[in-house]
Amino acid sequence: MNPAPLYVVGLGPGDAALLTPQAAAMLDAAQTIVGYRLYVDLISPERLRGKNVVTTGMRREADRCNAAIDAALAGSPTAVVCSGDAGIYGMSGLIFELLEARDLADAVPVTIAPGVPAVCAAAALLGAPLMHDFACVSLSDLLTPWERIEQRLEAALAADFVLALYNPRSKGRDWQLDRALELARRHRTPETPVGLVHKAYRPDQQTLIRPLRDFCGTDADMLSLLIIGNTTTRVTAERMVTPRGYAVTSGA
Amino acid sequence: MNPAPLYVVGLGPGDAALLTPQAAAMLDAAQTIVGYRLYVDLISPERLRGKNVVTTGMRREADRCNAAIDAALAGSPTAVVCSGDAGIYGMSGLIFELLEARDLADAVPVTIAPGVPAVCAAAALLGAPLMHDFACVSLSDLLTPWERIEQRLEAALAADFVLALYNPRSKGRDWQLDRALELARRHRTPETPVGLVHKAYRPDQQTLIRPLRDFCGTDADMLSLLIIGNTTTRVTAERMVTPRGYAVTSGA
User: Fold this and answer.
1) How far apart are CA A11 and CA A82, in angstroms?
2) How many CB atoms lie within 10 A of CB B250?
3) Model confidence pLDDT, tens digit, residues A203-251
4) pLDDT in tens, B42-100
5) Mean pLDDT across A126-147
6) pLDDT, position A248
7) Closest chain A residue to B110, measured at CA
8) Which architecture does CATH list for A6-116?
9) Chain A residues with CB inside 8 Å of B236's CB?
10) Which CATH superfamily is domain A119-241 in?
């Protein structure tokens, strides 16, 4: 049997209103849906009906991706789902890594469906904190040495990037965010706005904007995303706003 | 008359298949659509029918945003449209800035619709070049001094971020990308993959993956986005892939 298409689908933050028609069409075309349980739960039950659904727990990414590759090889059109975008801390890279390792890079036709990433969802709810140059850093040191992560935080803060922090805290990683905030305090004034969005566009969504001075690591968890402003970011009417540029001219 | 809602809508890269249902609903609810001509042209003519459409040329962002604020104040539900996401080099920040300057921050109800940003669209077409920590930098020095931009490029390259370059080149800005590539060559090997996507998900879309050694500034234009790999990015089966982490363990 010929291999079937393998789709890597960014679901967006979770709300069906932010699922692109392309992603929806790929989910509908798939016979097999593979993903971390929490992400598969973002898909409406009607959309999953009659499909072969393969879920596993956290940290079993390679198992999931191999299962998806096997399903596509066996002729079942397959969608691997990710929350947010498929390519930002998502599954698209691992799919290509595993296809290469299994010498199947040319054997399985892969299409990536980009999605609304968590950083854009959070930004839209906070106001306009990105606007200008920004950096995304994951605080998870499971696959990256902490020294490297810290080097990136330092570099981004020193060069006045707006800084988005993915995976700020989990049960097993409880000091990394405090360390990141400590670094931020060296490069930003105490008044710099920090925005936190918990479960963007899902039930129990929460947003919080607080000066860096008052922000606590315990405000965040695994389902939160943090945005630390650059030196120009300010709060206006309870929104976190980074002006577009440094040399604002009238009428520009 | 009470002010009407003001929507700031990220259209995604252009293809209707990547327009979120939320964004589509806001466009449909709006009586006035405001945007740069090139972006308004991304919306289907049926969707614009019967609406008051306000377009201006480039660099008239403040005029456009003020016109949108005026329309909403006059009671017309209004959508300001941006390509990609509404908050990444988009219009959301300028809307808040102008509302504040006009002392209208609490007077006009603003909702931001996040979209699939250009960087995710480009990444999906190139393979999986982001995957890990990345930075977005605009090479436009219209509103930001070049020294600041160069400082950010240096910082992101030195800390081994994947680096996405927005606005790499225009008729009036023809040396900035060459300078950015020169900086990249100091921090990356000549084999480092550079991906370029021109008009992602639009007619005449083009993608190009080339080693940094062979990449020319003239390969890009204003409708292109560039992604420079980090030190681990490689090409497999004509895809640009950045592995997820540095400490890959079997079965992780």
Assistant:
1) 6
2) 5
3) 999 999 999 999 999 989 999 999 999 999 999 999 999 998 764 443 3
4) 999 999 999 999 997 666 889 999 999 999 999 999 999 999 999 999 999 999 999 99
5) 95
6) 45
7) A127
8) 3-Layer(aba) Sandwich (3.40)
9) 96-97, 99-100, 105
10) Tetrapyrrole methylase, C-terminal domain (3.30.950.10)
Partners of A242 on chain B (C-beta within 8 Å) are 93
Is the backbone of residue A201 left (phi > 0), alpha (psi -120 to 50) or beta?
left
What is the DSSP annotation of B71-127? HHHTT--EEEEESB-SSBSSSHHHHHHHHHHTT-TTTS-EEEE----HHHHHHHHHE
- Structure tokens that stand for B152 in this block: 């950010």
Least CB-CB distance to A88: which of B61, B86, B120?
B120
Respond yes or no on whether ipTM tops 0.90.
yes
Nearest to A5 by CA among A72, A99, A58: A72
Boundaries of every domain in chain A: 6-116, 119-241
CB B79 within 8 A of CB B30: yes
| Chain A residues whose beta carbon lies within 8 Å of the beta carbon of residue B93 | 127-128, 131-132, 241-244
Task: Inform me whether the pLDDT recorded for B246 exceeds 80.
Answer: no
Judge whether A237 and A224 are in contact, CB under 8 Å: no
Nearest CA in chain A to B163: A135
- Residue A6 or residue B132, greater confidence: A6
CB contact (8 A) between residue B116 and residue A158: no
Tokens coding B138:
């605009």
